[in-house]
Design brief:
Largest sheet: 7 strands, mixed
Oligomer: single chain
Distance between the termini: 39 Å
Length: 113
């Protein structure tokens, strides 16, 4: 298992940018994939982007071209650079290891119109 801690959320206007960080500790060798997920009020948690320990990346269609997921080499930290933010990007953003085996506490992102 690993422990995950998100940071970097906040309030931003439409078109603005935020960079989220997910600090990872514990048995990092057990991590194959880290995903960024978001949960809007009244909606289910959805996968936004993921990165494997080998560096392959995938994005949900709604964020392609706007969000970039990256990691440092030992995968101690995974980042989500979010540009051109929209009100529909509002929600609590979580990082999760291995498709939900471990979760962080989340960080709130609010995009005002």
């Amino acid at each position: 298992q690993v422990q995950l801690m998100e940071s970097g959320g906040g309030l931003v206007q439409t078109g603005g940018s935020l960079k989220l960080s997910c600090a990872i500790s514990g048995n990092i060798r057990s991590v194959g994939v880290i995903g960024w997920y978001r949960q809007a009020p009244g909606k289910q948690r959805e996968l936004v982007a993921l990165i494997s320990n080998l560096g392959s990346r995938e994005y949900v269609d709604s964020v392609k071209g706007r969000f970039t997921i990256s990691k440092d080499k030992p995968m101690n930290t995974v980042y989500l650079q979010m540009n051109s933010l929209l009100p529909e990007d509002t929600g609590v953003y979580y990082c999760g290891a291995n498709f939900g085996r471990d979760w962080g506490q989340g960080t709130q992102v609010t995009v005002s119109s």
